[in-house]
Amino acid sequence: MPLSFDEAKQLVERLKLFAQPQRLIIVDALLGGPLAVSELEAKTGIGQPTLSQQLGTLRRADIVVPRRESRAIYYSLANEEEILRAKALIGLLREDKAGLPLAQRIAKGQASLAKPKTQTEGGG
Question: Taking every annotated instance into account, which residue ranges of this chain make up the domain HTH arsR-type (predicted)?
Fold first, then answer.
């Protein structure tokens, strides 16, 4: 089904979230799993004020979620779909050949992180 104008506008707004270098770096760092804000700062080199601002933007867009543990706040990608989107988007933008099968699975509606089944496992 072709994109409607409204759907295209929504997708463009979503893409804008990843079109900011610090946000893309943060999302990439979180692909490795949850990180405390201090760990994110050290891993990305993004200073605390900018990091907090960009995490807030990603949080409001439901791309990342915070979790408080004692005095530290840990951030992670919100769910499996966000992990999948981030991996596919970053892989495609890097022209990473490993990202192509993932993008193909998404395009076919197989939006799952599970590896496709082989013939011996019962897959086609």
Answer: 3-97
